[in-house]
Amino acid sequence: MQNVSWFSQDRALTLLRVVTPLLFMAHAAVRIAIGSIPRFGQFMETHGFPHGVIWVWAITLAELGCGTLILLNRYVRFAIIPLLVIASVGIFLIHIKLGWFVGEHGVGGMEYSVALIVMLLVLAASDRDKAARR
Fold first, then answer.
1. Which one, 15, 19, 100, 126, has the greatest CB density within 10 A?
2. What DSSP character marks residue 72?
3. Which residues, in sequence order, are CB contacts of 128 under 8 Å at separation 6+?
4. Which helix (DSSP H) or strand (DSSP E) does residue 24 occupy?
């Protein structure tokens, strides 16, 4: 890794801390922009969540709010928790029955959500270690 010595662990974690929340925030922003909240709300209701649109707005606002906190490097470990729940529940409600692969070998599988969960766990560990050094 001496050829990429400019890309330190700190820079890698910073990149992860920027990219990860932006992925969640993009989902929320597109959901609002294209007006798919009512349709997603109906989906949630068919899976046992009463008042589906309220749940979807809660998910959307959590993705935006928690994503912003992570981007600002504030309360990172706490902001990660709702996003972990969202990604985990998404796996069980949507993706697990579609298999592992998202694209190429499948459609809508759980690999992307698993990657997001791992990214969030790395950020949480990094934040914990940073807090312990203070």
1. 126
2. T
3. 77
4. helix 9-34
Amino acid at 93: L
Classify the C-alpha dihedral 128-130-132-134 as positive or negative: negative
Confidence at residue 91, expressed as pLDDT on a 0 to 100 scale: 97
Q: Where are the alpha helices (DSSP H) in 35-75?
A: 37-46, 52-71
C-alpha to C-alpha distance for 63 and 10, rounded to whole angstroms:
24
Tokens representing 99? 């298999």
| Contact (CB, 8 A) for 97 and 87 | no
pLDDT, averaged per 10 consecutive residues of the chain (134 residues), comes to 74 96 98 98 97 98 98 96 98 94 86 97 88 70
pLDDT value, residue 106: 79
What's the N-to-C CA distance of the chain in angstroms? 29
Instruction: Calculate the CA 65 to chain-centre distance.
Output: 12
Half-sphere exposure of residue 28: CA atoms within 13 angstroms, side-chain side: 22
The residues, any chain, with a CB within 8 Å of residue 101's CB and separated by 6 or more, are 107, 109, 111
Cα–Cα distance measured from residue 23 to residue 87, given in angstroms and rounded to the nearest whole number: 12
Confidence (pTM):
0.90
